[in-house]
């Protein structure tokens, strides 16, 4: 992450239960989250978190990040340069909450500071 373009940071979680979603929203209140994306299965969770954070929720079917790469989020990186975005997707058997940074040099995964089981 060394180029002159600001990285887009995606906080990616599979939280779906109300308690998980509320904990996730609480963990993000100190960050400037620009938007919440969710797959169809996470529409209610995305709308709940977006309401708490005061941002919009958008449902998309192309959000699968896959830990092997940036997946469908690479296209959203240009829209969200320098911003933090929450992405709620189904993530079986992967870490509960992770962060993905994408800039002109590529992408990098890291654990999320506000890890929430999900």
What can you see in these coordinates?
This protein has 118 residues and is an alpha/beta fold. It has helices spanning 18-28, 43-53, 74-77, and strands at 8-13, 33-38, 57-59, 84-88, 97-103, 106-111. The chain has a single domain (8-111), classed as 3-Layer(aba) Sandwich (Rossmann fold), CATH 3.40.50.1240. A hairpin with a 2-residue loop joins strand 5 and strand 6. The chain starts with 7 loop residues before the first strand and ends in a 7-residue tail after the last strand.
**What's the count of strands?**
6
The tally of helices reads 3
Mean pLDDT across every amino acid position: 82
Uncertain spans: none
The SSE string, one letter per element, is EHEHEHEEE
The CATH level-2 architecture is identified as 3-Layer(aba) Sandwich
Widest sheet: strand ordering: 3-2-4-1-5-6
Q: Radius of gyration over alpha carbons?
A: 13 Å
What do we call the CATH topology?
Rossmann fold
- Choose one word for the global shape: globular
**DSSP helix fraction:** 10-25%
CATH superfamily: Phosphoglycerate mutase-like
Our estimate of the beta-strand percent is 25-35%
Number of separate structural domains: 1
Distance between the termini: 27 Å
Major sheet size, sense and barrel closure: 6 strands, mixed
Give the gist of this structure.
This protein has three helices and six strands.
Secondary structure blueprint with pairings:
Elements (H helix, E strand, L loop, with lengths): L7 E6 L4 H11 L4 E6 L4 H11 L3 E3 L14 H4 L6 E5 L8 E7 L2 E6 L7
Parallel strand pairs: 1-4, 2-3, 2-4
Antiparallel strand pairs: 1-5, 5-6
Helix pairs in contact: 1-2
């Amino acid at each position: 992450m060394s180029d002159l373009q600001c990285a887009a940071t995606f906080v990616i979680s599979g939280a779906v239960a109300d308690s998980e979603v509320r904990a996730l929203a609480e963990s993000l209140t100190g960050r400037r989250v620009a938007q919440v994306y969710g797959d169809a299965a996470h529409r209610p969770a995305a709308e709940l978190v977006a309401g708490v954070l005061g941002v919009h929720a958008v449902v998309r079917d192309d959000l699968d990040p896959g830990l092997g790469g940036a997946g469908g989020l690479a296209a959203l990186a240009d829209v969200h340069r320098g911003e933090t975005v929450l992405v709620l997707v189904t993530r079986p058997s992967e870490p509960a909450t992770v962060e993905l940074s994408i800039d002109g040099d590529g992408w990098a995964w890291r654990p999320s500071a506000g890890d929430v089981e999900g």
